[in-house]
Amino acid sequence: xxxxxxxxxxxxxxxxxxxxxxxxxxxxxxxxxxxxxxxxxxxxxxxxxxxxxxxxxxxxxxxxxxxxxxxxxxxxxxxxxxxxxxxxxxxxxxxxxxxxxxxxxxxxxxxxxxxxxxxxxxxxxxxxxxxxxxxxxxxxxxxxxxxxxxxxxxxxxxxxxxxxxxxxxxxxxxxxxxxxxxxxxxxxxxxxxxxxxxxxxxxxxxxxxxxxxxxxxxxxxxxxxxxxxxxxxxxxxxxxxxxxxxxxxxxxxxx
Length: 255
Description:
Elements: E1 20-25, H1 31-47, E2 53-57, H2 65-71, E3 76-81, H3 88-99, E4 104-107, H4 115-128, E5 138-144, H5 150-167, E6 171-175, H6 183-192, E7 197-202, H7 209-216, H8 230-254
Parallel strand pairs: 1-2, 1-3, 3-4, 5-6, 5-7
Helix pairs in contact: 1-8, 4-5, 4-8
């Protein structure tokens, strides 16, 4: 006759906790930027309550990324840049901060380009009043921060192409600094082509100086920054999972 102990099932094996998700924001002196980023992180947490979500800034706001990583000790974390293209911050600043920490980090790709960003851009344009003018007279200026890195300009150009395909009108990328054309130059070029209804799409993750300056130069309607649009939270998690999958493939290849 089996003993009483043999009838007791073995304890269930506890699944390891998923790595932390560290959203890396640039930082801004505009207080609306920090509140927007925090609200976006709340959306991410609501979608994945099992994932520890943290915030780290490159500059200007606390917590700074090195402090966030220090608090994680030697645990595993995925760093998702809240940036829309490749550039110095993605290629230099974030990897250097990660390398100086004890945490076992994986660096995700920047958010853009990606169709989910186009979803958010289209929604923000619609909220601003896009959609009631003839296609032959309509166009969009995609206003971005700008970078001296040619990869950043390539990425923004790809987003402009995706948005143009979605809307069926010309979309010209323009920049607040460090790259050309400027918003004013792009607007003049479109007006010269008979595009009287030129909207400004705000290719910024949150309100700030550049977003505000670009919006003031809009000849017609100006959309709000991407902010807390649901597609932004989906994209943050997509980049997180993408980085984890890449890390797993790398570990299997080196085993």
